[in-house]
Description:
By secondary structure, this protein is an alpha+beta fold. It contains 7 helices and 7 strands, in the order βαααβββαβααββα. The longest helix is centred in the middle third of the chain and has 15 residues, at 101-115. It is globular, with a radius of gyration of 17 Å. The two termini are 32 Å apart. Residues 1-5 have low confidence and may be disordered.
Amino acid sequence: MTPTGTAELRAVSLRCPSDLTPQSLEWLTDGLAAALPSLRMRGLFQARVDMFSEADLITVVLAGDTVVGALASRWCALDSGTRFLHVTAQFVADAYRHGGVFRQSWRSHFAGILESGHEFPGLFALKTYNPVVYCAMRTFAAAPGTIFYPGTDEPASGVPAVPVAEIARVVAPGRPFQPATGVIASAGSPADLYAEMPLSRDEAVNAYFARSL
């Protein structure tokens, strides 16, 4: 699949659980498997269908009728009552990297959250073992007053004044967490999702992932 330059991007929302029928789940997973042939997506969905089934909102980005991206999230709460957005899935088609799909995903997803009556999330978390995804999420740090954790230093500098260990327990129950690096041990499933580890354009990030994981 290659971008034709003529198919306009558009986003559709699946509000869960009502919109996530067996048919819509099959449509979504089949579309993502076709969009990301370099990844073992079938194995991922067999092991982690909960990334969609436990989501509150799924934003699917389409180019024409073709699935080219998806973003899913659920609301979680800490013992203190603080709520945060757990991003359970973020995908961009191989042929649409470095384009508008990432921005369209987030713009439409935030709009969907607000339309549902929720406030804009002041705290959100995503776990990944992909340096490219890490760099993409780091773009949010450009917003004034934003803290991004973890950094690529070791030990991690600037650990935010939020209970990161408690957040880690919520997004990956029962997995050991290392605050100095931000690593949640053995939380990536399946471990062989990537034929080889993707590399970002930031050598410091690549070195951090190689060193920490």
